[in-house]
Structure formats: C-alpha cells, structure tokens
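Check these lines:
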Amino acid sequence: MKKFLCTLAGLAIASAATSAFAAITVLDDDGKPVTLQKPAQRVIAMAPHVTELLFAAGGGDKIVGTVTYSDYPEAAKKIPNVGDNRQVDMERIAALKPDLIVIWMHGSSERQIDTLRQLGIPLFHSEPKKLADIPDNIQRMGQLLGTEAVATKAAAEWRDKLAALTTQYAKRPPVRVFYQVWDKPLYTLSGSHIVSDAMRVCGGVNVFAGMKITAPVVDIEGVLREDPEAVFATAEKNYGGVNLWRPYKTMLAVKNDNLFTVDGHLLNRSGPRMIQGTAMLCEKLEQARQHRKN
C-alpha cells in the first residue's frame, strides 16, 4: 500500500509538473503577461489587423469571431461578426466561448474592454507601434495558438522583407510628407503612429510628427505652412483624396506633382501587409525625389 501511495504521489507531482510546463505565457503590447493553460482553440479578433496577424500566425481556423472590415484574407469574410470598433455584441461573444480575445485599444472603447475583462477570458492587446512589432506580434500569437512553426517562419520572412527595405532606403535624401487620413475634418497621424515609422523606413519625414495626439485634426492653413514635398491620401471609399490640394499651386507637393494615392488597407492596418504597403510608399517617395527641380 505504501508503495502504491508513493506511486500515486509521484504521478500527481509529474502531472502537476507537466501541467505547469504546458502553460503558455507571453507579453502583449502593453507589456502585460497573458497566460493560457493550453494553446487557444477559439479566438475572437477585435480588429481587422488582428485577423490578418492571426491568419499569418497559422491560426485562421481558430478564429470564431471578428469585427467589421475584417475582410482579409478571403477566408476571413466567412467568420461570424461580433460588432465593430464602437460596439460589440457581448452576448454573442460569450456564446462563442472563446478561450482568447485579441483586442485593439484604439479601436475599442475603455468601457468595451472593461466589459470584456468581466468575462474572465484572457485578453491579448495588439498595438504595433513600429513595423518591427508586426512580425513580433505574429510570433507571440503563434505561441498562444500552438502554431509556433508556422508563425516563426512567417515572422522571419516579414523581418527579412523589412530589413531589405530599410537597407535599400537607408541613405536616401529625406522627403517631408503630409499623410491625409480624412478630409472632413482634416485628419492626419502623428509621429507616434506606425505609419510614421513606415515613412522613416523610406526616408520620409512626417511634417506633423511632433503632434501629441495620435490622430490629430489639422487645417489647410497649417498644412500649407508646413509646405510638404509630398502628400499621401488613401484610396478607400469615403476617404479624402489628394485633389483637395490641387488648387494650392504654391505648395511644393503640387508644384512637383507629388500628390500620391495609396491603398489604406495596406498602410492603415498594422498587419503583415503593412510591410508590403511600406514598399509602395517607398517607391512613391523615390518618385518625389526624382521630381526635384535642379
């Protein structure tokens, strides 16, 4: 009997050790630890860029809920919608029985996040601030999903692409840039936004980098005072276009024909495709350099 009890005790210790070893802990973009006792099998993505990151990490088949505009890759369109960046259906989220929710603070209100916390489900905050954070997000999500092999390979590929871009444009002359997110009101992005990091990789300088607010409202007069050499606006429906600036003939970007349109899906979402969008941004800035008048 004594031998039997010792065996049971040994098994219990071994089981506890195995269980402890199986626990997964990673830090999210707030630097907070997120711990799962086993790889997540049912995940809700609370932002379009999160959906793209999860697919890149090899976890597309584990996503049980997304929010509006989660339309890439194609398979994402078939995943049930639980709301948008303003309001989500908490009852539906609870009914989906997720074991992990990946949130985006800028796209979700504090009240919404607080309500999600009350569900007692682990939350991972994804908020890439620099392009290098994108492959890091992929790798950490792979750890949480138990898809490390796929995630590690994908992360390495995106790091290599980013490194190649950085090297290619490292010594190019700077170009002062105004990035137009919306025109009514006239929104731009400050230096703390990841789009400014994309500009830096390309040798671009955000003329409103010093603004304290991440997405500040500016006015036409303020942009004219900055006199950017290039203006970028997104091509998405209902977003402001570069044609707003054509009447201002004295602005350098207009004089040098540097009014550029870019795909907002590639640059406004901090998912893997943003590195692809950065390559396109770099090409446009190279055109701006070629338009300089001697």
The CA atoms of residues 85 and 107 lie 5 Å apart. The first strand starts at residue 24 and ends at 27. DSSP finds eleven helices and 13 strands in the chain. Confidence is low (pLDDT under 50) at residues 1-20.
